[in-house]
Amino acid sequence: MSADESEPLLSVSDLTVSYGKVTALDGVDIDVRTGETIGVMGPNGVGKSTLVDAISGFLDYEGSITYRGMEVSEASTQTLVENGLFYCTERRDLFGQMSVEQNLRLGSYLNRDGENERLEKVFELFPRLEERRSQEAESLSGGEQQMLSLGRGLMSDPDFLILDEPSIGLAPVVLEDISDALAAITDLDVTVLLCEQDITFALEHADRLYLLENGAVRRSGPTESLQSDEFVESYIGG
Ligand SMILES: Nc1ncnc2c1ncn2[C@@H]1O[C@H](COP(=O)(O)OP(=O)(O)OP(=O)(O)O)[C@@H](O)[C@H]1O
């Protein structure tokens, strides 16, 4: 069976999420297949964080979100994580007074087998974290905290990594490190859902893109086919 005929790993169907009277997402459909890197694009306030919060089971929603065939609203966070889903939020959620290494080891709390090997891999990807392994997380720069957040995600040995704006607020030189790490992660056959405002970053990494506007999917398709799309061009042009 080719990849296209297989069941999606994640299937979002007619998803609507409201905060009181504000409808943040309105009838969104997204499929992610094993091995793909999917970009979800859009400017501030378009609904990207709402989408990934809902997929990770943190929000009530209408419609359906299935991960490995399980309806997310009916699965516990532990079940989702045990089934390979890991969510790296733009908020990073690090434990500031714990060391870099302790934060990383927390990522593997449900799966200690192979933890030390995974730690070595993360340090290979991010030598700056190894140099700072005993330093408190809150004393890291923004870019280093982003590396730590990504590294902690990898410590869970994920099948499906959800990244909410990994490029946000980073200086270009740090962005290059994050970009290299993401390329290495996708080479490891981890399926990735990448929410991004930075179109250059998304175009570089995603196999397919969904462009959101006002809480709805405005365009979707393979990255190459959207590169010359006039809506995408107008978005790049600002
Ligand atoms: N807790 C909340 N209560 C009320 N409205 C909310 C809440 N969280 C988000 N919203 C609204 O929902 C819409 C989508 O927000 P969301 O954070 O999902 O967008 P986003 O695309 O992730 O933006 P950003 O890139 O700025 O993080 C916005 O209009 C936002 O103001």
UniProtKB/TrEMBL annotation:
Start and end residues of each ABC transporter domain: 10-236
Molecular functions per Gene Ontology: ATP binding; ATP hydrolysis activity; branched-chain amino acid transmembrane transporter activity
InterPro entries xrefs: AAA+_ATPase, ABC_transporter-like_ATP-bd, ABC_transporter-like_CS, BCAA_Transport_ATP-bd_LivF, P-loop_NTPase
Annotated SUPFAM superfamilies: P-loop containing nucleoside triphosphate hydrolases
Tagged with keyword Cell cycle: no
Protein keywords: Amino-acid transport, ATP-binding, Nucleotide-binding, Transport
Pfam families listed in its UniProt record: ABC_tran
GO process terms (BP): L-amino acid transport
Domain of life of the source: Archaea
Family the UniProt entry places it in: Belongs to the ABC transporter superfamily.
The protein, known as: ABC transporter
Organism: Haloterrigena salina JCM 13891
